[in-house]
Amino acid sequence: MTQISQLFLSGILLLCYLKIHGLGIAYVGALMVSLMAFTRYRETWDKLLVLIGIFVAFVLLHAILSGLTLPSNYRLGQDQTKQMIYSTTNFTIVATTLMLGRRGDPEARTRAIRYILIGMLAIAVLEVYGPLKSAMDAFRSLYTSESSIYTFAERDVQQYGMVRPTVFTSEPSSLGNFFGALWVYFVIRGRRTLIDLAGYMLLLLAAIYIIRSPTLLGYAAVVPGLLLVQARRGLLGYGYLAAILAIFLLVPSYLYTQKGYFSGTLNYFMSTGSFFIRQIAPVLSAEASISLSPFFGAGFSYYEVARDTTYHLLSLLHGGYYDDAYLSVMPVGQYVTNAAWEFVGVYGLFGGIGFAAILMRLFRLVGIVHGPAVILATAVLWTSHAGITLAFTWTPMIIIGLAFYRPRIAAVQGTRAGASLLPSRPTGPRALPGE
């Protein structure tokens, strides 16, 4: 039974990892695997089904309440209904994956992730310096829609100094996000000796150099806070994570206003349309949504609000790429490229509190401790993810959550050898304090 559950778990994560654009396979495939898992373990998942039902009711109620406070041109329609379905699908995938994670062997999973991380780096090196680039592009084209094939090699050379790898994903940032999430799991579940900590850092530095994705910086930033929380230094850990979240949300906007003081690569990076649409436009869109409905946000009309808010700014400031011809056909979802600010704009104050409460109930149900730390870390990482209705965006929460399971086996395992900078994670049922 454990092996079957891990096959289900691996299948869901693989579909999310591939991040298949345009075809909907990631959604449909991961949902189908989730439903098959429900069928296999239906005798133990009654409470989880009830929680999913509560989430569906929450999404519907929030859509009604937010719709009542919005202007008539932003009322519920076909596009908003589609986003609600995506949201429910993603929650089902998250809940199922976390429940499946309880049935696996944490030590075996940690070893597997070590080999996966090394394998991803090896393929990335061969893609950048070896013969795999063309082969990887050809293979990826088999399951990626033509409009989503990564074609920015020349820009990468100019901006990052080299071609960036993708390792089967749709783009380098996706590779960076998935590698980073697995790396966080590896650190949280691993040993704390000086040699081990040095190994973790070398692995991350190698990934930063080879993948060259700024998304990896977020994962490096949240690890100290997660380790402090795990070591029962909650005040420091939560304070650190809250401070990091504030920095990642607000500092890019401040740096953008000061970009004239920078030169070289940094000035070029902050002057691109990509930086504007990922870090500046989301702040403006969230502000516009909150001004319309501070307590419930704009709901899934947020995407139309984002388009109306940033269309002319993109055309005016970055018309060389985002000209009127391009913007007129650009899907409304592409105006939303920062999941953290998107969450603020979609749910508002009360909606955000309700969503967080449901997540905390899910964590308690599946046996995950330190749920607020998982949520705070995920919020930090969402600043480099696009779209809370994308299945891929939820993978950091899934993988970090997997690292914080309360142990189910009472047997005490052997003491890990070596000195540690932070207290090693104790084993047994009291290893991590519960709620």
Automatic annotation (TrEMBL):
<feature type="transmembrane region" description="Helical">
    <location>
        <begin position="112"/>
        <end position="132"/>
    </location>
</feature>
<keyword id="KW-0472">Membrane</keyword>
<feature type="transmembrane region" description="Helical">
    <location>
        <begin position="83"/>
        <end position="100"/>
    </location>
</feature>
<feature type="transmembrane region" description="Helical">
    <location>
        <begin position="339"/>
        <end position="358"/>
    </location>
</feature>
<keyword id="KW-1133">Transmembrane helix</keyword>
<feature type="transmembrane region" description="Helical">
    <location>
        <begin position="388"/>
        <end position="405"/>
    </location>
</feature>
<feature type="transmembrane region" description="Helical">
    <location>
        <begin position="48"/>
        <end position="71"/>
    </location>
</feature>
<keyword id="KW-0812">Transmembrane</keyword>
<feature type="transmembrane region" description="Helical">
    <location>
        <begin position="172"/>
        <end position="188"/>
    </location>
</feature>
<feature type="transmembrane region" description="Helical">
    <location>
        <begin position="200"/>
        <end position="223"/>
    </location>
</feature>
<protein>
    <recommendedName>
        <fullName>Oligosaccharide repeat unit polymerase</fullName>
    </recommendedName>
</protein>
<keyword id="KW-0614">Plasmid</keyword>
<feature type="transmembrane region" description="Helical">
    <location>
        <begin position="235"/>
        <end position="256"/>
    </location>
</feature>
<feature type="transmembrane region" description="Helical">
    <location>
        <begin position="12"/>
        <end position="36"/>
    </location>
</feature>
